[in-house]
User: Fold this.
Amino acid sequence: MRNPARLLLPTLLLCACAATPPRTPDKPDRPAVTVAEAYVSAPLAGEELDSLASWATPDRTVWLIATAKSSHRLLVFDADSGARLREVGRKGTAAGEFQRPNGIAVHGTHVFVVERDNHRVQVLRLPDFVPVGSFGSELLRSPYGIWLHATGRGRLAVYVTDSFMLGEKFDVVPPLAELDQRVHRFDVRIDRAGGGSERIDARHRGAFGDTSEAAALRRVESIGGDPEYDRLLIADEHVPHGSTLREYSLAGRYTGRSLPPDSFDAEAEGVALWACPDGGGYWVTVDQLSPLTRFHVFDRLGLTPRGSFSGRRAARTDGVALHAAPTARFPAGALFAVHDDHSIAAFDLRAIATALRLPAACLH
Assistant:
């Protein structure tokens, strides 16, 4: 059944979830060490970069795929240099076209792109970005973030955040009772069809979100998961209520736990899991500050703080992608972050581990 709230969409999504300007404390009360960026790519005006995903190509190079909201397309970068390689798509509603692409995730040879204004998740096959299909358009109102993981051979659980808002300027948080629709889960299968083509089989498995005054998800975008520990971390960007990341199970149950109080001075944005072979690891999160983004690192198991760092230039970061596998330039892997909506900043994971005095167990 079509959601009645979709009747509001033609006007609702013109202004949904306008970003709150990041707050810059005069004297930050959380010290952060400096980790110099390995590079900051050339600025690209008019693109409004948001989220990132990495993909290891068959020729052993690594691509960074970025969503560009204002130009309604994807941009592909070389992960080792930051050089722009190509652009994909244009504004539109057809397959292979986009409207305000935001969240992005890669699994195998497929890239999943969340489109806020097309209210869908579109799937394309790499390396040629051949459209495979889309899902969610009958349910999603203002989708933003995505995280997925394999649940079986050819099967994926896909989680999509939905940050629909109300009011004349679409900046009013809906009533608490409606916030149980902040995250949707889909079971997705990509089937082979005739002639080498593929098709998407996606089934909605429900939506969830806490509705209490203390812990409701008021403005959502970034989401990350850890199947080994049955954990989702969901960023609530609502600064007036205290922006943080809240912990849910993969089944959508709020655990009652969030990251430590007052961890963030601005909006909690991107989140990435840095998993170690021994089962340990870290969560890297974004505090969207200016003039410098602050990246907070938390223990994978206990979610306890392990330190914070900033670059020399990276600011107002939205999305991040952590590529732990070796590349030609980054033998221990790298963290990639959007810088000020127009560039990519790269950090060597060895430099981060050294600066925060983290054990070398995660480094290749």
Summary: Residues 1-28 have pLDDT under 50 and may be disordered.
